[in-house]
Design brief:
four-stranded parallel β-sheet; Rossmann fold; elongated
């Protein structure tokens, strides 16, 4: 199912049908990140408030619950102590990522219905979503595409804007620099031989403040704004690395001091409190919070639900499989 079309909500409906039909007594919901489990927990509270649930952690698995929420690592250290018939249904969220290799043993251990949720199934030799669920290649059990969702007005189409400096497009070549710049580089003690590199390698090899400032300025000039028209709408900027993300945050603070540091924040795994209750991610999800721009390295790449987001900025190379 395409991103934003309601995979978790669909899972809730399937659970409800199977429970009411007495086909499922205990359900295991697996995710690879704690934030996705928090989202699932909130969905159960909203859509299935009468079903007793628990979050599996520290090796504790009570036997009197209907729904069990767990990360793959938590269940990986516990499943061998649980009988193969304990769960009647297993739901794997973002099933294109973490259900392979040693985590696949979880699915082999339990004799249950198994459902994989993903917007982006993979077809690698060692990781194939279709073969994992014993399906024909490229033929999921159910598919709801982005085009279908747009046509039926559940999603809106996107508009792309391509903003790149000449250095990001072509890289930097020593013989293309003017004499004054070459002399400054030599005076700074930099080996001219390390200057030649491709544009895609920029952020890995140099700190280019001008490029980062340009990205931030272009974003602020061209982004979709919030209803007041004074600030950007909720936005995610995908950075290459934590250091790159921090440079982007500093550019926002330096170029737009009137927001007093509340406009844009780095939200990634370097801050263990980022995805806790009341943390930065919850602040970003709050439509009324002044935090409008989340700068992420990997935490917000997939699975995080923020319907208010209207701008996505890819400040890194994007490779499509």
């Amino acid at each position: 199912m395409a991103t934003g079309t309601g995979k978790t909500r669909t899972a809730m409906a399937l659970i409800d049908v199977l429970v009411r039909s007495n086909w499922a007594k205990r359900i295991l919901f697996l995710a690879d990140r704690k934030e996705l489990l928090r989202q699932a927990r909130n969905a159960f509270r909203e859509h299935l408030p009468n079903q007793p649930w628990c979050m599996i952690k520290n090796g504790d698995c009570p036997i009197d619950k209907r729904v069990y929420l767990s990360t793959y690592p938590s269940m990986s250290g516990l499943y061998s102590q649980i009988s193969s018939g304990f769960f009647d249904l297993i739901i794997a969220d973002e099933s294109h990522r973490s259900i392979y290799k040693h985590y696949a043993e979880i699915f082999k251990h339990f004799d249950s219905y198994q459902i994989g949720l993903t917007a982006t199934p993979v077809r690698f030799v060692d990781r194939n979503t279709f073969s994992m669920f014993e399906l024909r290649e490229g033929m999921p059990t159910y598919n709801y595409s982005f085009d279908d969702a747009v046509k039926e007005k559940h999603l809106v189409n996107f508009k792309a804007m391509d903003v790149r400096t000449q250095y990001q497009v072509g890289g930097i070549k020593w013989d293309q620099l003017d004499t004054e710049t070459q002399q400054q580089i030599i005076d700074d003690g930099i080996d001219p031989n390390v200057i030649n590199f491709e544009g895609s390698d920029l952020e890995k090899k140099v700190t280019n403040v001008d490029t980062t400032d340009l990205l931030v300025q272009e974003f602020m000039d061209g982004c979709i704004r919030d209803p007041s028209g004074t600030s950007p709408g909720k936005s995610i900027i995908f950075a290459i690395s934590h250091k790159h993300a921090m440079r982007i945050e500093k550019s926002f603070n330096r170029l737009y001091p009137e927001y007093k540091g509340y406009l844009a924040r780095v939200i990634d795994s370097h801050d263990p409190r980022a995805n806790t209750d009341g943390g930065l991610l919850d602040q970003f999800k709050d439509p009324n919070d002044p935090l409008k721009v989340a700068i992420s390295v990997d935490m917000l790449d997939t699975g995080v639900d923020v319907p208010e987001v209207v701008n996505l900025v890819f400040a890194k190379p994007v490779f499509l499989g």
